[in-house]
């Protein structure tokens, strides 16, 4: 029986639980949070919705890590979101402590699990999770590129006035202001957007994509985006659980690709039963390669802060 655990029953976590249940991603979806009653209440609500939606998935709400034992896959959303004016890196310390706690019970109770990390700052938190778990690096992956690419796809479809289903985008690098939208690998029904839009239109789309998260944070005033992040995470979870071998941009462990080693960074990769089955290295022009290096440097700076605060310690 497939069991998926979603850690954190906040906006992203509960939306992941809803999407996972409605898509029957697993027989059981466990939703765990530290706030008493919150995951249990959401689970009850979702199980009652199943009577109308017609899905066969059972959602279990809990505060006890023991109930997550034997999970095939975890989606980790536990942690604070940004407030207006905050950078994702401002969440390093508070969310780093949470990720370490969660990693400890995943390792003990679900040693075979694959793990998708959503908690921000994403590229640093996925590194921390992998270090603390000690699992093979391909079993731990971060969600960012699918979301950032979806944002870019929406902005392109809005500008061109066509349907979003024909738009495919690629965003590389870290999940922050240093992310690297790749217009040359972004297409509408197979045609590169460089043939469809002017340079200044593309520059405006790239800029809006890089700040797509902040745009929503500023509109909401409290909290950050959750519908598209949950869609992205559940698409990745489905690719892993159903061994789909989908090519998706994710924060994956780099081992020399793009001249980079020993860090998680957004790159296209193939997701299947083993997690990241393959990292796909794109040929970048000088400008793209330079931006990717800069993105890697900003992640390494965050990792250094985690080390200074003694949070980056294997269990
Ligand atoms: N990677 C991405 O692209 C992306 C996108 C959106 C949000 N995020 C991040 O996801 C995280 C969650 O966002 P949200 O909007 O759901 O926040 P939220 O505040 O609505 O929910 C967070 C939940 O985590 C819970 N929590 C805290 N410590 C916990 C622990 N040890 N175990 C279990 N649960 C715990 C809280 O009680 C809360 O219910 C944030 O860090 C946010 O920045 C990342």
Overall description:
This protein has helices spanning 11-22, 38-53, 92-109, 122-133, 145-160, 199-210, 212-220, 227-241, 286-308; strands spanning 3-7, 28-32, 58-62, 73-76, 114-117, 140-142, 167-168, 171-172, 180-181, 187-188, 191-192, 246-255, 261-272, 275-279. The protein is of the alpha/beta class and 315 residues long. The chain is globular, with a radius of gyration of 19 Å. The two termini are 29 Å apart. Bound molecules: nicotinamide-adenine-dinucleotide. Nicotinamide-adenine-dinucleotide (NAD) is lined by residues 7-13, 32-35, 77-82, 91, 95, 98, 101-102, 118-120, 122, 143-144, 147, 175, 223-226, 229.
Biggest sheet details: 6 strands, parallel
Unreliable spans are none
Tell how many strands the DSSP assignment holds. Answer: 14
Q: What percent of residues are in strands?
A: 15-25%
The DSSP helix count reads 9
**Nearest-integer average pLDDT:** 95
State the distance separating the first and last CA atoms: 29 Å
Taking strands numbered 1, 2, ... along the chain, how are they ordered across the largest sheet? Answer: 3-2-1-4-5-6
Helix content: 40-55%
From N to C, what is the helix and strand string? EHEHEEHEHEHEEEEEHHHEEEH
Shape: globular
Instruction: Indicate the radius of gyration in whole angstroms.
Output: 19 Å
Small molecules bound in the structure, each named once:
nicotinamide-adenine-dinucleotide
Task: Determine the structural class based on helices, strands and strand pairing.
Answer: alpha/beta
